[in-house]
Amino acid sequence: MRVWYCNCEICQTYIQSSWTLQFPNLCDWYTHLLQNSPTQTIHFHVLNNTITANPDNVEYILKTRFDNYPKGKPFSAILGDFLGRGIFNVDGDLWRFQRKMANLELGHVAIRAYGFDVVSHEIHRRLIPLMESVSQKNEVIDLQDVFRRLSFDTVCRFSFGLDPKCLELSKPLSKFTISFDLASKISAERAMAASPLIWKIKRLLNIGSEKKLRQAIQNVDILAEEVIKQRRKFGFSDKKDLLSRFMTSNISDEIFLRDIVISFLLAGRDTVASALTSFFWLVARHPDVEAAILNEADTIIGAKNGLTGYEQTRELHYLHAAIHESMRLYPPVQFDSKFCLNDDVLPDGSFVKKGTRVTYHPYAMGRMEEIWGSDCLDFKPERWIKDGVFYNENPFKYPVFQAGVRVCLGREMAIVEVKSVAISLLRRFRVELAVPRDASARFSPGLTATYRDGLRVLIRNKPRPN
Ligand code: HEM
């Protein structure tokens, strides 16, 4: 049951924010609590939130009793202003329709080859020239910012057939990008508030963070409408992009189309940028892993060649493992919540009352000895390799792409993108951290993991042909 005040240690630590004295991030404190819970599940009374890192519970919520754990109305209310009726924010028929349409597009094998081409174009036309010029100037660059621009261009070309050309650092960040980040941040903060009343009153009075959110959403709406207008102008009858597919499916509601655009931007932009940032954050600290990635690339691709296509990316097992390993420790979506429809008992015996928010926590799960063994905090791609090939873990132990009925539809596409960027950069450049190697990762609040200070690095040319 939700209580407005609670004296227990966990609730008091939350209310007083005293966890900040010991932990760099809220997710680190949650991890500590989950590691010390005998069931790997905890309950926050003041948030009416059950949080679990127990794979049996995760399977139960995401698959076995999927119907009892929808996104639910409270979640839709928190994200409704930003995401509207987009796929991330709805259940039932509205969700089924969007999933079916997106699956037609993203589930197609040919689309992965198309995804590879889109990413390759961005890498060769923009990313490599940019890095060449940065390396000559010997200046510090924020790789997270570069990856956010790159993944924005890529998702727009891939999903909407349009190219916003964001990866030109001479351009200031667009009003849209800043507004999109702000809307994501303030929406996530709503979910962390001890009482929804606070943000609801602020929204009613249009003050403080809620005023900023409203303005940010207006800016985001302008871009989304522009995307739809452009797509209509250029025609979409023979186009294979996702937006054209939705626009030719009898949707006459412009606001619904806008919601679809925003959801796919969120799906493909921040997650991929976050995955890439964490990958380079870790690889720059582990030269042995970088050497193994390059060694494999030389063997599969040839020392003097570039990647030939999507099929070849599939042969890079060690790189595949390194990417999965970096997302195990730094998942782009650190936690994800559902709402319990009817009273229930989770497999670990935890009672869940109707209306409780139930969260599974991939960030904590990557740090559980029960799941990954005593070396769970180490970055070891080898744990994903068996007999020389990549070995897929049980998705409920590793719900980085969610799992079960609503599993991510863009997983393949995301991995192709991260692999292509990783190989292209690591073979041509040395990425040197411009921060102390032992600095701990600090994240900003948001729907996807964002490094608070970015990823500041120096880029050096490598004496290699490619
Ligand atoms: C490393 C990159 C990615 C990660 C870690 C990731 C992770 C996730 C997660 C955790 C969810 C569940 C979210 C929720 O229920 O609120 C999800 C859903 C989804 N993802 Fe991804 N994603 C990634 C990239 C992508 C890309 C590139 C696309 C599309 C181009 C995509 C499309 C989707 C869609 C459509 C859903 C909604 C599925 C549904 O609700 O039925 N994702 N993803």
From TrEMBL:
Main location: membrane
Highest taxon in the source lineage: Eukaryota
Protein name: Cytochrome P450
SUPFAM superfamilies, per database record: Cytochrome P450
Protein species of origin: Buddleja alternifolia
Localisation: Membrane
CDD domains membership: CYP86A (cd11064)
GO molecular function terms noted in the UniProt entry: heme binding; iron ion binding; monooxygenase activity; oxidoreductase activity, acting on paired donors, with incorporation or reduction of molecular oxygen
Stored InterPro entries: Cyt_P450, Cyt_P450_E_grp-I, Cyt_P450_sf
UniProt keywords, alphabetically: Heme, Iron, Metal-binding, Oxidoreductase
Record GO cellular component, one term: membrane
PANTHER family: CYTOCHROME P450
Cofactor annotation: heme
Protein topology in the membrane: Single-pass membrane protein
UniProt similarity note: Belongs to the cytochrome P450 family.
Residues the record lists as binding heme: C408
